[in-house]
Prior knowledge:
By secondary structure, the protein is mainly β.
Amino acid sequence: MQQAITHLIIRNPFGTMDVPSPNDSEVKDYAASASLSGDAADVNAPAWASIAAPSDPLEGEWQSRWNGGADPTIAGDTPDKWKQGRAEIRASGGRIYLRFDWDNGRRHGLIDAARDGLDRLVGKYINLTTPAITRPWVGRVVDANRIDGCFPNGRLDFRR
């Protein structure tokens, strides 16, 4: 008989696997060089999502999209193609958690981030479907409908 693990403490409000070491040196090194202008020329500036923004500035339903890597589970995928899906953002314990999916909900990811100033988020991504895949991530909260985000290989953006 297997013993249930009863001492696990989950940090994120979604009850999924936590992002490992979201403040490690890899994240800090990437955050030191990542730059997101938040201007009208950014690739995330044109509206592409159709979720109405609630009164809360971040929490709630969003849409996500990412590029910069090919998902081997999606036939014909290439690094330049956008993978879109649904997202939800929750704040808990001074952290911001961005949970999202793609490939029609078959694949899932989670970002665990801290605020760095008024509009910057710094953290790490974990692929919940393939947990060996983690990446540092930096986001810029442009407004209540747009978060521009990047990781070392590409973009991971959110819109309403």
